[in-house]
Amino acid sequence: MTQKAERLNNPVMSVIRGNIGIIVVLLLLFVALSFTSSVFLTQDNLITVLRQISINVFLALGMTLVIILAGIDLSVGAIVALSGTLTVGLIVTTGMPVYLAIVIGLVIGAAIGFVNGCIVTQFKLPAFIVTLATMNIAQGIAYLYSGGQSVRIRDAAYTSIGTGQLFGFLPLPVLYMFILVFIFSTLLMKTKFGTYIYAIGGNREAARLSGVPIKKVEITVYTITGLLAAFAGIVLSARMYSGQPSVGAGYEMDAIAACVLGGVSMAGGRGRISGTIFGAMVIGVISNGLNLLGVSSFWQLVVKGLIILIAILVDAQKGKKLSFSFKAAKQ
């Protein structure tokens, strides 16, 4: 094999080529913020950025799978609130062992995802409407369970899940993020299940005729997304020393933004985990930079909204170009 062929087959080079646009954007952000804030490039701040984006990455990994299927899941933010509040509440108010409360919290998230998948596939309803409904249900249950109040926890065995460090400097949420990114990158790119996801999102009818178990795949993907959201809620509540029913609002938008920014097509059938990670990093760096510059959180919402809008417009233009190229090829 020639050196050129080896470079082409190098997975790192493949990731760079596939995400060159957003990588350039990320580098420009780093350069700009390094000049506007002397704190930005410090080790402590960069680790803070990684810690902050870890929760969004947990959600965005599942959202990537859902969007590649040509679906959407708006319930993930509410699952974050419900799982975190419920897990902390079970430990504090009932004295339940930490491991058992965590298992119940994860099962609740997976169950909501499973219900989403079953309703979407069995009744052929729009995922947007189904997950909007379950979002409100999950949010309501979180408020009912906690009485609208945050539940404090001091159990070190639990709080260390979100506050602990590896080797004295690497936050555990960042470690979880690295592990999950590796797992889901492998799942999507190296397994038959990942091939099925792309096939369904790319052409559902062709996938059905090819014998792809569409319903099973979709239900599994929504269940995984709910499980990841529950895990994010547990890690976040451990990091905040409390379960809060109000937390998680807008998290689904950040996850969607990370996916779209990273090149995951809202039309389905196209996207990479690596792109989603870069998308999450862009959002995290922008939020961190705006915080360092003292920009109001209200303006940050405006900026995020504009980012999502621009990303969707770019995605739409890519779709038109791909459609045009396909028609030209047929002619």
UniProtKB/TrEMBL annotation:
Q: Which UniProt keywords apply?
A: Cell membrane, Membrane, Transmembrane, Transmembrane helix
One GO term of the cellular component aspect? plasma membrane
What is the membrane topology listed in the Swiss-Prot or TrEMBL record? Multi-pass membrane protein
- Molecular function via GO: transmembrane transporter activity
* Protein's cellular compartments: Cell membrane
The record's principal subcellular location, in a coarse class, is: membrane
Q: Which CDD domains match?
A: TM_PBP1_transp_AraH_like (cd06579)
Output the superkingdom of the source species.
Answer: Bacteria
Statement: the UniProt record of this protein carries the keyword Cell membrane = yes
- InterPro entries per UniProt: ABC_transp_permease
Q: Where are the transmembrane segments?
A: 20-41, 53-82, 88-115, 127-146, 166-188, 219-241, 298-316
Could you tell me what this protein is called? Ribose ABC transporter permease
Source species of the chain: Paenibacillus riograndensis
* Gene name linked to the record: rbsC
